[in-house]
Amino acid sequence: MSWFKNTWFRDPNEEVLFINDTAVRIRAGMMLAIPLFMALTLFDVAYTSPWIVNANSIEDTYEVNDASQIIYSGEMTRRTYDYTVQTALLFYGLFELLAGMFVWTSRLSPTIHLSNYLARNKRAEWKPLTPKRFAWSLGITLVTLCLVFFNPDVFANWVNALFGAELLPTTYNYIPYWFPVNLVWVCIALMWFEAVLGFCLGCKIHSLLVWMGIIKEPCYACHNIDWDEIRRKHEAT
Predict the structure, then answer these.
(1) What count of other Cβ atoms lies within 10 Å of the Cβ of residue 206?
(2) Could you count the other beta carbons within 10 Å of the beta carbon of residue 197?
(3) Domain coordinates of the chain in residue numbers?
(4) pLDDT in tens, 85-94
(5) How far is it, in rounded angstroms, from Cα 90 to Cα 115?
(6) Which of 98, 119, 182, 222 could form a disulfide with 22 if both were Cys (CB 3.0 to 4.6 A apart)?
């Protein structure tokens, strides 16, 4: 049961935790499905017809418009969008981001177990957890903003109830459409970089903040000495 206890951690009892970056990249590829689905949803909302036409009710009016096109009449209703699936998927993504931050919660994550299993025959690349936590915190912020976009009335009711005033409207979406569209593309790009190139932008931002002295961190190199590799080199010589 060590695989369940350790998940993708080198040693869950270490003072400074390290995780298998190979498994992290595999998991990022899995989680990429969420922003792709959100992008498909936004495309459907923006570029498909907002009307549902009853094909059985269509009748020829025997009239034409200025472009000599035949005019038809029929029953149609305006589409209403239900974001229940999208909301549930975003909450699951939120859970996955939070689960990877701690040892005990990682044991509850299906994607962590699956990615760790898929990486079992690959050489582990141990990376410190703290920069990943920072990156995933940025991801949590992006997911939260998407949740607000898909549920503007719920969020508005919470805010208005909290402050006892109508600060946000509840009858229309106050978040402009371009905002989630750009947000989704940012998420897709960041997760693609992580999964395919192994480039973690959030980790780079964390390193920059450490370099600027805003964030203090321990010496990761001191905690990440590969004694087995050193022993193999000595044996080879």
Answers:
(1) 23
(2) 9
(3) 18-47+76-207
(4) 999 999 999 9
(5) 20
(6) 119
